[in-house]
Amino acid sequence: MDRSFTEKSTREILITGFGGQGIVLAGHVMGMAASLADRRESTLTQSYGPEARGGACSAQVIVSDSPIHYPYVQNPDILVCLSQAGYDKYIRSMKEGGTLIFDQDMVRVPETKKGDSFAIPATRMAEELGRKMMANIVMVGFVTAITGAVSREGMLKAVSDSVPRGTEQANANAFDKGYDFGLAVLKARRKKADARKGGER
């Protein structure tokens, strides 16, 4: 997978879950990192279900090296799911060959899924850090490592500027935990692919 941006490239990212998981904050952080730190164009739109907490929630982020004329994500290149309902609602809209990223303890994905997929126990990892509510930050760290859609440095700055005062370091640790997990997943996949190629010779 090409994790770097090409000239005039665009990534449409849809983050979905339920109210109370910090879905909109995750989208806000990604959009801020893209525009203020990486100097790219970005947009953020959001939607809520009938209830603010516990209802369906999504954040739509577009990151581009060229002007964005339509701010809504219709067919995401990257679909990030932190709830089963979100996965069920949006998986059919993901672009052919898109990347699915999901919390493996919150979402069950059939083996017949389309496109590439990456799983992380984001909620469990946040609980291990002592704050379940930081699962969204663990997840955006993972997304950053897997996709390269925004820079690590920009994301860390955006996280620090967006979270409640006094929690900056804890959230930075959560981000790094997800980011490092993503790098480990990519490394394992590369080794597996190399071993497969070696066996075919």
Keywords:
disordered N terminus; globular
Fold and architecture overview:
With about 200 residues, the chain is of the alpha/beta class. The chain has a single domain (about 10-200), classed as Pyruvate-ferredoxin Oxidoreductase, domain 3 (3-Layer(aba) Sandwich). Helix content is about 45%, strand content about 20%. The protein has helices at about 25-35, 85-90, 120-130, 135-145, 150-160, 170-200; strands at about 10-20, 40-50, 55-65, 80, 100-105, 115-120. Strands 2-3-1-4-5-6 form a six-stranded mixed sheet, sandwiched between helices. Helix 2 links the parallel strand 4 and strand 5 (about 100-105). Helix 1 (about 25-35) crosses helix 4 (about 135-145), helix 1 packs across helix 5 and helix 5 runs antiparallel to helix 6. The radius of gyration is 16 Å and the shape is globular. It starts with 9 loop residues before the first strand and ends with a helix. Mean pLDDT is about 90; it is low at about 1-10.
